[in-house]
Amino acid sequence: MAKKASANSSSPVATDDEQKLRKKQAKREAKAMLVIEEAKKDVQKAEKKLAEAQATLEARTAHLRTLEENLAELRTPHEETEVSAPNAVSDNQDGLPELEYETETYTSS
Questions:
Q1: How many other C-beta atoms are found inside a 10 Å radius of the C-beta of residue 56?
Q2: 12-62 confidence digits (pLDDT tens)
Q3: What is the pLDDT of residue 14?
Q4: What angle is formed at CA 50 by the lines to CA 48 and CA 54, rounded to 5 degrees?
Q5: SS3 label, residue 92
Q6: What is the pTM of this model?
Q7: How far apart, in whole angstroms, are the C-alpha atoms of residue 101 and residue 103?
Q8: How many Cβ atoms sit within 10 Å of the Cβ of residue 89?
Q9: What is the mean pLDDT of the chain?
Q10: Confidence of residue 11 (pLDDT cuts 50, 70, 90)
Q11: DSSP code of 36?
């Protein structure tokens, strides 16, 4: 019976150790869960910030395109007038205005 008593007395001690280990494990799991939740919040915050930055980038890119198109429109008529101006001049290649000569017939008396 002495063996039974010693076996029974070691059992409660073993269960106490097991409970302590389970408690420590539960604490570790709880800490890990808190860290995971915090990391998830950080990821969501970063995703939100990224989405806002992406929207800002798209808006600014669209504005840039609009400005570039406006500049192109401003340049286009100016270039067309420069190109068409030399063509508007007649065949006179020297760029001087053409003079019209009057031909008079002189009659001798």
A1: 10
A2: 777 899 999 999 999 999 999 999 999 999 999 999 999 999 999 999 999
A3: 77
A4: 120
A5: coil
A6: 0.49
A7: 6
A8: 13
A9: 79
A10: low
A11: H
| Closest C-alpha among 80, 30, 68, 40 to residue 22 | 30
Phi/psi of residue 36, nearest 5 degrees:
-65, -45
d(CA 33, CA 27): 10
Nearest CA to 9 out of 22, 21, 1 is that of: 1
Mean pLDDT of 65-77: 92
Instruction: Note the Cα 29 to chain centre separation in Å.
Output: 39
Residue 33 one-letter amino acid: M
Q: Which two tokens stand for residue 9?
A: 């007395």
Q: Is 95 left (phi over 0), alpha (psi -120 to 50) or beta?
A: left
